[in-house]
Amino acid sequence: MRPARSHVGNGGINLQTSFKNINKKSVITTDKGSISIYKVYGGPSYDDNNKVQYPVALISFKVTNNTNKELSASQISNDTQLTPYALHDGKYDSLDQPIVLGSVYKSNDEKNSDNYNKLNSAGDEWTNSKILPHKTSILVNPNPIIIATNKPKDEYLKLEPVQVNRDSSFIDSKNNKLTLDQVSGENVKNPTDILN
């Protein structure tokens, strides 16, 4: 797997335009429910030295449980995870996701320590929080999506099994991927806005 940093362009892309497509609805469907992209924040992430590391997107979802049991978002998605791929040297490579949600804030930033903790706690809810039968909750994808190309069509998201040999659930049953310019959701200015 090629490290994500080898794909990152200078300055990233204009997230306010590339992450919104009002003509297509970004919905993941499985036998247990549906997951639709709700809000998207785009901005820089920072390393431990407070230097810009990667341009990233944080995504929250409306997750609906269509079963008669309490299930987590992870269970509803059939234990799959959203993995970004980017075009590099003529082929698409999966990107490592070595960062946490809170990395959109600089480390040792007392002003934003509460927001840092809120985001990281929200990421844990994907696996640990249960959604009541036939109810919908707003939850956050625990992995920031690294923006690795200046051309949105050269990067796509795909749901892939976390465990080996599990059946995969796809964003689009025909295309099994979603390019960044097809992601539809409300764009927000602050990272924590994706939580509500």
Describe the protein.
The chain contains three helices and twelve strands; from the N terminus they run H-E-E-E-E-H-E-E-H-E-E-E-E-E-E. A hairpin with a 2-residue loop joins strand 5 and strand 6. Helices cover 12% and strands 34% of the residues. It is mainly beta and 196 residues long.
Would you kindly provide a brief summary of this structure?
The chain contains three helices and twelve strands. It has helices at 15-18, 73-76, 113-128; strands at residues 27-29, 33-46, 52-65, 71-72, 80-88, 91-94, 130-131, 136-140, 145-146, 155-161, 178-179, 186-188.
Name some characteristics of this structure:
single chain; 196 residues; six-stranded mixed β-sheet
Strand content: 25-35%
Q: How many H/I helical runs? A: 3
First and last CA, distance: 34 Å
Beta-strand segment tally? 12
Which term fits the overall shape? globular
Quaternary organisation: single chain
Derived structural class: mainly beta
Helices and strands, in N-to-C order? HEEEEHEEHEEEEEE
Largest sheet: 6 strands, mixed
Low-confidence parts: 1-23
State mean pLDDT (0 to 100 scale): 78
Helix content: 10-25%
Radius of gyration: 16 Å
